[in-house]
Amino acid sequence: MSHYYFEKIKRLHALAEIGLEYNTIPYDVERYQEIRDICLEMLEKITRTPVADIIPVIEERNGYRTPKVDVRAVVFNDNDEILLVQEKADNLWALPGGWTDIAYSPAEVAEKECMEEAGLKVKATRLLAIMDKQKQNMPPAFEYVYKIFLLCKKESDTLSPGSETCDVAWFNENALPALSLPRNNEAQLKMIFEYKRGERTDPYFD
């Protein structure tokens, strides 16, 4: 599957959704509906995923497509090791985090996810990066995603996995485990360690 065409089809589908939301002219509505259906058919073909499974992921109830937001907590211990959790979904490792929730700020999401996934109490202290997932050499996804990386200070020491994780541990920069690439990649972890060493100071953004 071509990542380029996958992203363009998603963009075309989003434009069709916006057209359906704000247009009341019957002729135009029919055309936007046809474009939307063609996009869904193409996505089904190139991803081998049924349309019924695609629609709940990529269509907003209000018709106006906006990016989803993923928050990742960056936590170091006194040995300059980084906290990672092993995801049950793929048995690979990632920074604690997940989708933002209504009524929670990004900082609160980072703190909540650390407690839920790693059993660790933390306090978000600094913004490190806001990334466009599609510009970060990450696997293609139906959602268009912005990723927020927040530095957090640990306020407890006990680690314990949660309902979505099977393990949690501290890792040295030169001994990282296999990463869950839909969640984070090696380049992002490298950048995070550059912040830790003081080689980067200003927040990164796409």
TrEMBL record:
The lineage of its organism: Bacteria, Pseudomonadati, Bacteroidota, Bacteroidia, Marinilabiliales. Keywords: Hydrolase. Pfam families: NUDIX (PF00293), Nudix_N (PF12535). It comes from the Bacteria. Its cofactor is Mg(2+). One of its GO terms (molecular function) is hydrolase activity. This is ADP-ribose pyrophosphatase. The keyword Hydrolase applies. SUPFAM superfamilies: Nudix (SSF55811). InterPro entries: NUDIX_hydrolase-like_dom_sf, NUDIX_hydrolase_dom, UDP-X_N. Residues 66-195 form the Nudix hydrolase domain. The keyword Hydrolase applies.
